[in-house]
Amino acid sequence: MLDDIDRRILRHYQRDAAINPSDLAERAGVTAATCTRRIERMQASGIIRANRAVINWRALGYEVEVSLRVTLDKTQSRAFDEFMAAARDVPDVVEIQTFLGRVDVRLSVIARDMAHYQNIYRTAILNLPHIADIEALMHVARIKSDEVLPL
Amino acid sequence: MIELDTIDRKILRQLIEDATQSASALGRKLELSQPATWRRIKRLRDSGVIKGQRLDLDRERLGFGVTVFLGVKLATKGRVSLDDFERAVSAIPEVQTVEHILGVYDYRFRVVARDIADFERVLRRRIMMLPGVGDVEANVLLSEERRPGPIG
Asked: Could you say which of A54, A99, A147 has the minimum Cβ distance to residue B97?
């Protein structure tokens, strides 16, 4: 299980995942050796799954981001699996989430501009199987996106 | 905006899996020299294509069993300052992301909680107390996949 030192390290590491190991040890108030050992242990036990690069799609020319909230035809027993499998094949889909609630699945779709988005929507999205209803939300701005856990 | 070639895409895919690998380790995997790999990584960072790093943690094992997405509509548009609203919601520790959207809702929040009872506490005591909050729709996250997107 985690103790206070692990939590302290994680708190600082989460806020700045690109930090170098000696700075992290200093901020967490532990020696570099302890810090390294604790992180390795949390990696081995699967608490820390990965340290991932985050891509800024705008810098690659993708100006439009749309959330598609999809309700599936649940009378079809394979609706979820078949919809998910087909959605994974659409390269413009960057995120797939499933929910318990009014919405079944949310797809995050990126496009270069509105014309490009229209094209993806017509040729790829509307061809996905078992869609009962679909609702689009356009992203305006990200105000907070650090995804830090309140440890 | 910068153009990526096949090698850049491979490097990005690798760094999405593990951003801590060194230029030499990455170069060996892709059969590229260390300096060439380093130059490409630097270009990706300097141009802002890589905007940072994110720690991927096992939320459940850290005691956060529930993630809920909230669609929030503002009740009194024009009377509440959006800046104040955004500042107030961003200050709630359980709120992980805040997105301003256009559609049936005005904002989308990602909220983590220990369990449903803890979520109810956050919803009632924090979210519903925000100035100007109107309709709120909650959807509990069951599963989540991040895809490589157009660089895949």
From this structure: A147
Work out the number of other CB atoms within 10 angstroms of the CB of residue A89: 10
CA–CA gap between residue B73 and residue B104 (Å, rounded): 8
ipTM field:
0.90
Alpha carbon B18 to its chain's center: 17
Q: The domain containing residue A18 runs over which residues?
A: 4-44
Give A144's contacts in chain B (Cβ within 8 Å): 89-90, 95-98
Contact present, B53 and B19 (Cβ < 8 Å)? yes
Same fold, B6-46 and B62-140: no
Cα dihedral B119, A146, B13, A95 in deg (nearest 10)? 40
Please give the CATH topology (third level) of the domain spanning B62-140. Alpha-Beta Plaits (3.30.70)
Tell how far CA B77 is from the center of its chain. Answer: 26
Chain A nearest-CA distance from B121, in A, is: 15
* Cα–Cα distance measured from residue B22 to residue B38, given in angstroms and rounded to the nearest whole number: 9
Task: Provide the pLDDT confidence category of residue B78 given band limits of 50, 70 and 90.
Answer: low
B100 and A139 within 8 Å at the Cβ level: the answer is yes
Q: Per residue in A39-57, pLDDT tens? A: 999 999 999 999 999 999 9
CATH of the domain at A21: 1.10.10.10
Percent of chain A residues past pLDDT 90, beyond the cut:
91
A149 membership: H or E segment, kind and range: none
CA distances A64 to A108, A140, B144, Å, are: 11, 9, 21
